Amino acid sequence: MPNAAKIIAYPVKEHKDTDAPVKAPEHTSIAPADDFFSVLAADPQFSKRIQQTLKDSLAEINMLRAENRWEDIVSLYYPVQEKCPELHAAGLDIQIRSELAFAMGHINQHEKAIAEYMACIEQQPEAFRYQSGLAYTLYDYLFLAQKSKSLCLPHHTRKLLINNAHMAFQKAQQLREMGVTNYYREGMLYKSIQAKPNDAVPLFKTAIANWEAYSTEEQERYIMQKKYYIKSLYNLASCLLALGVNAEARGLLEKCLSLDVKSAYISQHNKLYAYGKVLFALGNKHEALQSLQQAAAHTDTKDGDYIQELLARVYLALREPEKALIELEKVPAFVQKPYLSWCKSDVLRALGRNEDAKAILLHCLKKDGRSRHVTHLRLATLAYDQQLYPEVLHWTQNALDFHQGKYGNPCADALFWCAIAHMRMGSMENAAQAADDLKAYRPNYHFLPKLLALLEQAKINSL
């Protein structure tokens, strides 16, 4: 990384050394308040020089930006107060700050980037560029934290970032109502960061409607937004699938597949996978199989293991567990994620290989630090199939303990199976307590009415 010396050598003019900061006359000094105007009044050439300094600085930043030299931009111009004191004193540093913020985002200095954008917004709160830039930086920071193993945001910090991102997105949308990008990104904030597909749906729909309302000339002018239109189609379909609106999701994916051919804004295997998923949800198993096989052909099993997992689920639904196992074994064991182990255990159970299924799950417990309760519950249901009810209770209690410790609340499925285990063991009082806990925590739990009816019937039978 270069030092703080300027990279570009500008032509030297007699009145100015372009490699050195612009200086005020010796008998004055630049201060951020009234003294600046004294300097301006005392030196008629100062205005031209300061504007040339800004022009030269932006030209240099543009060159560095074109070469993706983000560290160099930050090294040369941050902090603005020190590196460009004349521009700062003149109140002409806003564009430099904006460029700095953009560069900082590229090298994961998000907190500094946010501060620079906030300084820009303080000067020009109605500037779309700065509101949009702030919104994206907050959004990118949240996605980075979600993917990173080393970056862990405290809950209150994450909540504040999310709230600020929503405010910035909504301000940017207000300033450019017919845009596409900011509606898409706020939709993704709801969908992928907050897991709120219901809230994401209207934003994706707005992004889609805005693009489709553009004239042909406008679509050519705003061609950079097209990818966010395509991505909105895809992610709206994903949200609708999660919400059970499968037929509409299918139509959106078909449109996405037909429009996103040459540009490939979304990878072909992901589109085909999503299409297979929605076909499977609609009960079209053979069509789903065909789409998923095409998806698998477009990717490596190490990267597309989720495709193999869904293929196995489809084969299970078709009562072909042998083929399901073949698909799962295409994924190297060292890269298998917990959801693949869960699927493999289901396949082995379908093949009558219960001990192998149990071994897979026990091995999975050693690797999984985030969703171990799911593995515990699978061990519990496996034990239930074998009528080993004390073992069911053991695994459900482990699931409850893990979920409470990890996430700070009970696990509804674990409470349900805990009640069932107690009931099968004849401990009706403990079963009723587990059912009451489930009712208090998750009153709309899908199998709660069935559980309560069984307990009531058992109570009547005991009279």
As residue ranges, the low-confidence spans are 1-33
Largest sheet: none
Number of helices: 25
Number of strands: 0
Approximate helicity band: over 70%
Oligomer: single chain
What is the residue-averaged pLDDT?
89
> How much of the polypeptide forms β-strand, as a percent range?
under 5%
Shape from CA axes? elongated
Span from first to last CA?
Answer: 83 Å
Judged by helices, strands and strand pairing, the structural class is mainly alpha
Q: What is the H-and-E element order?
A: HHHHHHHHHHHHHHHHHHHHHHHHH
What's the gyration radius in Å? Answer: 30 Å
What would your notes on this structure say?
By secondary structure, the protein is mostly helical. It contains 25 helices and no strands. Helix 2 (46-66) runs parallel beside helix 6 (94-106). The longest helix has 21 residues, at 46-66. It starts with 34 loop residues before the first helix and ends with a helix. The model is unreliable at 1-33 (pLDDT under 50).
